[in-house]
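Render this sequence as a predicted structure.
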Amino acid sequence: MLCRLYLAAMHFNENAERPQRKTAKGKLMYRPMFLKAKRGGYTVKQVKTETTICYVLNLMQLVFKDIIHDPVPYVDAVQRIPVPEDLCAQLNRPSIEDAVAEHVSRFSRGGGLNLTYCPEAFKNALLIHSTMQEGITTWTLLPRKPQHQLTKVL
């Protein structure tokens, strides 16, 4: 764990002060960030240059030249370490058609809508009672649409 901390610190130290990327004409590059909290608004963020990993090359040079004078046994030991396959290779990925067919909107899971006509208490109103999956119950009143005189009988 301490080695990971040291590697993270070296990565930060090398890449913290990256310059801003420029276009071919020399203009500074920015990109818009559309945040949910801004509700349709946006902010502008600088586009930085790509991260570098030169510290890894320096570490390898230090290890192989100064610490390990004969790296052959080390390389053999490293090559014998079993490397697991990627996590994405271990999963069975469905085809896009199957994924679309199995998709269920979060609004259509459980609860549903109960439409009932409110009699005298809320005349001319529809009461929509919606119960969510987490147990949150919401009540909403919507004005009833005016009906033609002929359809009231039906």
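Summary. Residues 19-83 form one domain. The longest helix spans residues 2-15.
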